[in-house]
Amino acid sequence: MVNAMRRSTNLRRNILFVFTLMCLAGQGYAQTLSRKDADEIRVLAREKVKGLNDLLNAIANEDLSNYERRYLMMNSYMPSNDQIFVNDGVIVEDDTDPKNKVSAPGLDTPIEKYLSNFDLFYTKTEINTIEFTNIVVGDVKVDKYPFVKVFYTQHFKGKSNRDNTPFTSISRVAELRADKSGNDWVVFLTRIAFNSAENAKAVPVTPKPSEKYDSLQRKKEPIAAQPTDKKPVATPEETRQTERVSQQISQVNQAQIAQARKWGAIKLGAGVAALAFGAVTYSMLNKDYKDYKNRIENSEGFTSYAKPGVYISIGAAAVGIGLSVSSIFDFKTAKGR
Length: 337
Hints:
Nuclear Transport Factor 2, Chain: A, 2 domains, 9 helices, 55% helix
């Protein structure tokens, strides 16, 4: 009787254990993304980081007026077509002082203040002096939402107005979250910090937006169309300058779209050609092998007979597939701009 009770208890424990594993597996499955979704998020994350690079160069351009700079800065973190930060609650580790090169207490700065500091302390020039290189996009992970970290080297080639001190290259990490909007993914920056082992592994943050942001988000209107207490009043000349900047940005976007389409077409054509070459080569080798096998007794296998040609045909097919897939991302980039 005792043994029977023990067996019954063990059986219930085993069933409970298996059920728990099934629940955990189900949760893990629910949080997974398809390879297509993950790839799309990674491409969009890279473009958002490049957008940050463009924003800083625009703020540091001496040809822009103060109104134009404020316009660009506000639209980067408030609901607008130019938004790259998830909201105005985003925190950035301040690097506008050349002495700040690694994470340290007191460097966390709200995005509005960070951009204002950058505008105030970074020297203005006619040419671009900010460049992001060595951009590496990490794997997409899922916590409360899909997120990804992007690592890059930041080069401030200008100087600081504080004491004319030059900047040195530093390693940064940007965190971005992804949200589904219809059939497409939308990706925004949620944090920027100095790259470190701790920041690279840190759990994703959820910036808390201001009431002003929430109000604009509900209305789904860009910041430029909203009345605010501190809204800058543009003169006719500043308005014309803003229109000029918008036209220049539009021209740049059109050129980037054309370039993406061009490379997409080139890669697609090369991919198709490589696939065709691989298929034709394989077909010819197969035909020759059949003739060889009909004439020779104790003939060797196809792979041994056809090498290295068979490897060349397989390699060409693999290259063709790779180029064709890559062209899809180029066309998608052109479509998304």
